[in-house]
Amino acid sequence: MSRHTFSTSLKDEEIRGKKPLLFPGRYYLTTDSFSLNRFVRIEEYPVTQKDPAAEKLWFSGNEALALGAFEASVKVASGYPGTPSTEILENLANYKSVYSEWAPNEKVALEVAIGASFAGVRALSTMKHVGLNVAADPLFTASYTGVRGGLVIVVADDPSMYSSQNEQDSRNYAYAAKLPMLEPADPSEAKDFLKLAYRISEQFDTPVLLRSCTRVAHVKGVVTRGAIEKPTLTPGLEKNPAKLVMLPAHARGRRIAIGERQQKLAEFGETLAENRLELGDTKKGFIAAGTSYLYAKEAFPEASFLKIAMVNPLPEKMIRDFASQVETLYIIEDLDPFIEMRVKAMGIACHGKDLVPAIGELSPSVVKKAITGEAGAATFAPAELPPRPPNMCAGCPHRGLFYNLNRLKVFVSGDIGCYTLGALPPLSAMDTCVCMGASIGIAHGMAKALGEEGLGKAVAVIGDSTFIHSGINSLINTVYNKSYSTVIILDNRITGMTGQQPNPASGSTIMGEPANAIDFPELCRAIGVKHVRTVNPHDIEATFAVLKEEIERDEPSVVITRFPCVLTPAEKKRPKTSFTSKIENCTGCTMCLRLGCPAINWVPLSPEEAKGMGKKEKQKGYALINETTCIGCGQCLSLCKFEAIGTGEGK
Amino acid sequence: MKEHGNIHFCGVGGQGILLASELTAHALLAGGFDVKKSEVHGMAQRGGSVEAHLRFGTDKVYSPLIEPGTVDIMLAFEMMEAVRYLPLLNAKSTVIVNTQKIAPPAVATGKMTYPDQCLDELTSRSITVVPVDAFAIARKVGNLKAVNVALVGVLSRYLPMNEATWVEVIKKRLPPKILDVNLQAFQEGRKAGQ
User: Fold this and answer.
1) N or C: which end of chain B has fewer CB within 10 A?
2) Can you give the pTM of this predicted structure?
3) Nearest 5°: CA angle at A31, between B22 and B177?
């Protein structure tokens, strides 16, 4: 292999000029967060454009999908952040030829993309697997209307639930909505398959699903730059009610068209080069798609493979031919027996979930063990260690709220976001978490179930982005149906958990342009909430007093805890003074430790050490503030009764 | 000759682990290897345990995941985290470990204690342990965030690319403002890894 220079860069002419952060030859560390997709590097590489090696890129699957959308001449892209799909749009927003946006939720995002497709341009919608549940309504009927400009929905599954509340297999949606679905195995295929998806979409007049997953989205590999496809349609509006207005009479006609489309797609799959036969040793034959193919290939490099690119519809003839050529047929797939069930329905004998786990992500060793029954090389057993779960950041405004909710001993109906970490000790102040926006409806349901008995016992907590996503409807319901539940909106001005994406309350767009910021108090009043209070959650005592009052109220109320996320650019820039420990005053009462702040550490003391420090022998330790991580939010100061915390002034 | 290897990066969110894995990936690519790298994003960013799997080879690399018991080199940014991923190691693994201790929540709140002598878990299984005080190196060069590049300096001793390749990669990938301290950190790390 020759030496190449691998670039992560975009060319000058591709870069969005309006985004002030990005221009050539400069480097920006947009955040110190974990994701290197956030470590934006736009640079000029010292290689000539004629050198084909310069066209090699070191890209994550999500970066590759963004490049694929650019090369496919996508004009409009809309999505909602969700791990592991988020960085597709974040990267796509850097390409100036593409309009990108964060929508309030996935349903809106898909509808925007459908509209763009109807107007004759190529459109993209991105989301995680649970987001497709939200977008399922437009998805099922977009299957009926078909498209004008190519329409692709990228959905990212999360086997093993690294960052999700459930484990879903999105391939089932492709079957249920009667749509073609492509499944790439790595970043390079992700880009190529996205471009292929647009060609299929326009050729067969259908939305196309592309199934990504954690090990495609967040895997980095070598990607080769490709040709930019020129759009073939002229954008514009064409009236075609029989195809676009899904009245029952029209829909019945379209249902028949879908049947014909499925037939044509099935025939197309038989000739699709990406559905690839790799004949090797024919004792074992594997049918696999996506990352499952990689795992099986790694486990059995000598065996025969039918690598499926289009998982719906499946190429039946290819499968029959392959099955007839191998002694034993195995279907290797993550999660559900999607391919297996269909192969069995063809009357072909095969092994699948009788051997391969249906829970969690696969790996070469899992596949090998499943097929051969042999355990791999003996490995060391895990050591017993204190766990290291994620924690809210030092200075996180949510912490003060959850500390108070713990004190109030209320039942907390929770939601999806960083604040779900409020369920963990020592805050331990979240009692339900189901899906985006569910907290408010669940608290209302509890209020209706319990009547007067429940008054003052339950609250709903929901972040700003989640409230806009799908909490607003539930708040309307709470008011309309005369509940008494208290809704706490944790307004930190940003979509925090997925890496600080702007939302309709942030005042800016994904493309770095200023935008309207929703006024939550006004919105809540317009919905009909009479009692709307805004508090600073860092002020523990004031927040406690307001919460106590509102929770006991027998009418709907909203408390907005408003303070920006510590990871927003403005907050990071704001000068801060870390607090200091006055160890001599600390009695080891542990009050401050109840916040679970990562900047406060317990230092244990032996009786001798305590005595040596001039403390009572029975004092078991003291609290020490880490001055490099503390940002002086002030929450612990209000809890300390012994003046053992200094505000760091005059340092 | 076919060459391949598995490098595991682990530590605590915020330590610059993923940047270290990026620099290593780019150095391997510049050395002519095929490379795949896998990261888990999401919940891990909030001070949780973070890991990256990096696999390279002269042949095509298929799976982006390192199998249990197959790590060749581990670059651990925190002592306890090196031990946490013990099932990925084997008796021939080399573990380069930053001798820094970062208290997890249960330790910080006094509910549990940080395991004493936790590296014994590795040495007792005849795993080669290379302890490095990368925090001291970072302090010496004047930027506490340079821990990651100091560790990359140590790692560079264990991989086939020459020093110039690494330096070139660091120059390309780091912002000019912090380049000099990081180049120093890399050199100090290389010295420590001798």
Assistant:
1) N
2) 0.93
3) 75
